[in-house]
Automatic annotation (TrEMBL):
Origin organism lineage: Eukaryota, Fungi, Dikarya, Ascomycota, Pezizomycotina
Pathway noted in the entry: Porphyrin-containing compound metabolism
E.C. number(s) listed in UniProt: 6.6.1.1
ChlI/MoxR AAA lid domain sequence ranges: 264-324
Protein name, per record: magnesium chelatase
Gene Ontology MF terms in the entry: magnesium chelatase activity
PANTHER family (alphabetical): AAA FAMILY ATPASE, C2H2-TYPE DOMAIN-CONTAINING PROTEIN
Amino acid sequence: MADESLIDKIHDLSDLELAVLICLVAKEHCIIDTEPDALDELVEELELVAENVFGLSHAIVDCSEHTSLDDFAHAILSIDASSSRSNSPVRPRQESSYFLHTSAFQSISKSPVSENFADNKTMANVIIAKNLDEAPKQVQIQALELMHSKRIYTRTSVQHAPKRFLFIALLAGGEGPRLTKHLNDQIFISHFHDPEDGFPNLEEKYDDGDSTSSVLKKSPGFEPDANLWPRVSAAEIEHLSQLSDQAMVSVEIKAHQQNIICFLRTHRAVAGGVSAAATQHFDKLSRCLAPLHNLSYTTPSLIALAARKIYPHRIHIVKPERERSMQWGSDVDAVSALLEGVGPEDVIEDVLGTAGPEVPL
């Protein structure tokens, strides 16, 4: 089990920080959703989470329908490999967010990634792909290849992801699958951040940092001492990862988990999305949650919590004319009325509630 000081740190994390921690522990990737008006603030908050909480470099990919493969490669290969700070856990924000402020994503025509560029740049630890669902299919396929193989092919070289690597698909205003099928299934968890929950790191920055920015002039290579010591270290993340691998799952809990999967697959509102990959992720997340709650075993409540994070971005809601009772003469208008307003989260809550399997004692 984790020591008390680490558990106290985990309890102090915000919802976004906890989502990032879970993905780093599991060595997987995530979708973070929010309201459209709060998307830019969420990008800044995640930048600060990567830097200050975990001491990781980051890069922003601002996607649109005109984003090309070269644009994508330019954005994620944003860290100067020849810099004297290449071995430091912290990189200046200016390096990783440079391409967010260029016009590269406004035009589909762009010069190829130069050999010199690829040779002198390396990949950031955290890739934040804003509006990835708006990117062309070939860009989303490139993102899938990056997640799966942890490398990206430019026109002149192959660039490998760092050991600690996280890809965040940042979406806005929607539910259910919005990415290409295989990319969506590769994503580990999804999390909705309500803007009313706030952006603590961003608020702290503007409360404390801006007031001194006019007094303290930083050189391009200067980083505050506080940022050199992330709140959650790489050693602590690795320790949590080892504990999650060792978490015990009883026969009763495993059976309960499989029953939830069966009930989701046979739910009348579900057309698909409860895949084999989702089942593997379901089991993995259940184990990862145990050490975060200072447990060496999984429980029914952890299983339920894992289901609420694994399936919302995967479940497809069936069209009324294809709902299974239509085979036996149901009225399509009655089925439409039944399914109106039903989303993936409603299905999950239905299965975890009275309509689902009995919870083992």
